[in-house]
Task: structure prediction
Amino acid sequence: MRKIASDYAYTLCGSIRPLKRPLIHVGDDGKILSVGQYRDEDLSASDIEYHKGTIVPGFVNAHCHIELSHLKGAFRQATGMSGFINQINQLRESVGPEGRKKAMAEEFANFSKSGVVAVSDISNCNESFPFKKEYQNLRHTAEDSLFPVYYRTYVELFGTEKEDAPSILEGGQKVADQATAMGLDASVTPHSCYTMSPKLLEITARRGLESGSISYHSQESQEEEDMIMKGSGALADNYRGRGLSTPPVTGGTALEYFIDRIAEDGRKVKGRINLVHNVVISQRSIDRAKEALESPFFTICPLSNIFIHRALPPVRLMMENGLKICIGTDSLSSNLILDMVREMECIQENFPDLELGQILLWACSNGAELLGKQDILGSLEEGKAPGIVLMENLEQFRITSETKSSRLI
Result:
């Protein structure tokens, strides 16, 4: 058993306010035995580990493409979605297999050390699977600097031509089956409205929801919205210029288009649906999602959105509607660093009225619920094994450029 003490802790158990003088007893299996408070004289006990700073539960990265880590520093910024797609098509295979594996290995280790306990990760191939298996099966000891991390893999599918839909789904399912055979939780998932024929979107979403959840890039840019609502804009021109089919013009929002493809008989769509990015989400879209989806989550990736679009989601609108917000890093093709603390810093800088506890709720508790792991992760609570993370160099409960995180348990 370990006894961990610090200046403050965000337990996220019914409150987003910090607990002063926390003392947490943790079993050898990582489960929390008790959460209390210490007295000054308690710190003289030799078996209490005191850490200066603030203790929080482990982070859940709600959206990542870790297999794209080899693209760090390769992309131009502020190109919009059309420009970004051109770059991904040009540069994705610009590094060989060994270089890709080396870049991934570094990011897997960084997540483990910095306090990420779970990741909702997008895959297009099987290159990341051995790393995921290794980290899920990791058994931490006092001498180790690495900790286990749970990975939920979504094999993402693309394809704009209707006739290709069955074969694309079959190929993606084979990749997901490879992950499952290695002991990983995995399923197919649709990418977005603009990269898929209506047929492929429909059959992929329904197949993925058989596993209980899917992940979907939603309303990431105004270009996406224009393509669906009006059939115009840079993204529509890009696809037509390459001789690819574009989705039908509906006059509705991109999120409405997605929901219309997967909803049946007016019943709510069951399963956890991770709607990622939400840069141009509107009240109209939110109302439709609430009406039609049983368990939607709304993940924001602020540094990626700034990188590509110089824009951020309407966080206050999302909060006013009581949406379950999560936080992700996206990939190193659209970010300079994969670091949950830097994402939270960006949110706090741009929405300064938000309390740190609120942001941590998104980064920990909501992410755990997104992955169906809320009974284990997300809060410092007796009986859970959420990981224990130390945040150092906070200033009056605000993240600064000097703030860093490290995993203790």
In short: The chain is about 35% helix and 25% strand. The mean pLDDT is 96. The first strand starts at residue 2 and ends at 9.
